[in-house]
């Protein structure tokens, strides 16, 4: 546990002020640390681990917020106020740098508090590392590695959830299927590196064409889909036209004469997964049969 290194910037002031009698707390006692470890091991969600840890750390420092920054991004407790002074602690296990734990507080830290926080960090680092590993595995299981979009497995799960909500709460939605016209020729004539760049460019086009409530997926190859939170053909047409316009405006996709064909359909409370997918697929087939580079409803 001695391999945990903490770098803290002290706040200058007239002596060390403690918001309450933290010197007399017993959080560094073995029983208290064991209790913290036991609770932290009950979740593999980084935000949950931070929330549980924050309850114990509040006994030492009256902070307004707590963050953990790592290669996975920034996580923080739901009630965090980050407007106060940040106190940054580097957390490492042996040669592995987990990230930075940041407390935000208007109170300066005394040497006594820093020492007690060090003890709490030794209880935090392993549950936190486990949560980070779980997050990475979960991302690999649900994300397409090339484009960063949700994958087919995630699509199946979210589609089932949306159909259930449609049946229970009358929340209809739309399904759009897309693929790239002339993509095979790009791979055959210019190589897979250019093909991969084209797929990543198209993924950016899709993400910039939807709203925050919609979801984009890559099934594999040049096959993509979008779940749209709107049961209107008009909305689908607007999204489809926006996608086709951005594809035309893309210098990369125009260079290789790549366009997109789109099929879409509206969900109903009587649908099952296969039925709504089959209708959208028929719409895509209609777009292909109509000369490609167009969108068709079914």
Automatic annotation (TrEMBL):
Q: Which domain of life is it from?
A: Bacteria
The family database entries (Gene3D superfamilies) matched by this protein are listed as: 3.30.70.270
Which SMART domains does the protein's record reference?
GGDEF (SM00267)
Residues of the GGDEF domain: 171-298
Q: What is its EC number?
A: 2.7.7.65
Q: Which InterPro entries match?
A: Diguanylate_Cyclase, GGDEF_dom, Nucleotide_cyclase, Rev_trsase/Diguanyl_cyclase
SUPFAM superfamilies the record matches: Nucleotide cyclase
* Family annotation (PANTHER family): DIGUANYLATE CYCLASE DGCN, REGULATORY COMPONENTS OF SENSORY TRANSDUCTION SYSTEM
The name this protein goes by in its record: diguanylate cyclase
